[in-house]
Every structure is written in structure tokens, then in C-alpha cells.
Design goal:
Elements lengths: L2 H27 L18 H16 L6 H17 L15
């Protein structure tokens, strides 16, 4: 496999991980409102929570995200993943959902 094929496959995997993370969060978003600072709290129950945590850990490792705690590292990875998922304006996951800040 040549390098360009490896990068293409990695890019496709990255977008798939971003979209799956976004899908799971949207599934559990419910009627959560944004706080004064724009923060939205989403309660993701088990077993989806385990999937989201694993996706965020993989993304943090991939993006080289670091934080003072595991949760801060996952938050940084989540922000990057949502930015990546937001690049696809034709995604069906964008319907009716405002773009992440």
C-alpha cells in the first residue's frame, strides 16, 4: 500500500470516528440547553458512554491532545472531533442541529 492510500484511509477513518461521536451525542442531546457560556451538557448513558469515551481517547491520542486530567484531554479531543465533523455540510447529522462553536 502506498503512502497516499494510507493517508486517504486514515482520513476516512477520522471522519467516520467524528461522525459516530457526533451521532451518539446528538442521540442523547435531548432537550439540553446551552449555558450562558455556550456549554451544552449531554448525559450519555452506558453502553454508549463507553463508546464515546473510547472514541475520545483514540482521538486524543491521534491529535496529540493533552490536558490536566483525562476529562480535560477528552474535552479537547471532542472539540477537535466536532470541528472535523462540522466540515461536512452535507452530513445528515447536521439537519436541524446548529453548528458547534
Amino acid at each position: 500500500m502506498i503512502a497516499s492510500e494510507r493517508f486517504e484511509r486514515a482520513a476516512v477513518l477520522g471522519v467516520a470516528v467524528a461522525e459516530e461521536t457526533r451521532r451518539l451525542l446528538r442521540l442523547h442531546l435531548g432537550a439540553a440547553g446551552a449555558g450562558d457560556d455556550g456549554t451544552v451538557l449531554v448525559d450519555v448513558p452506558y453502553p454508549d458512554a463507553a463508546v464515546v469515551a473510547a472514541l475520545l481517547d483514540v482521538a486524543a491520542e491521534c491529535f496529540g491532545e493533552r490536558g490536566g486530567s483525562v476529562e480535560e484531554t477528552r474535552q479537547a479531543a471532542l472539540e477537535t472531533l466536532l470541528q472535523l465533523a462540522g466540515l461536512d455540510s452535507e452530513s445528515t447529522l447536521n439537519s436541524g442541529v446548529p453548528a458547534p462553536r
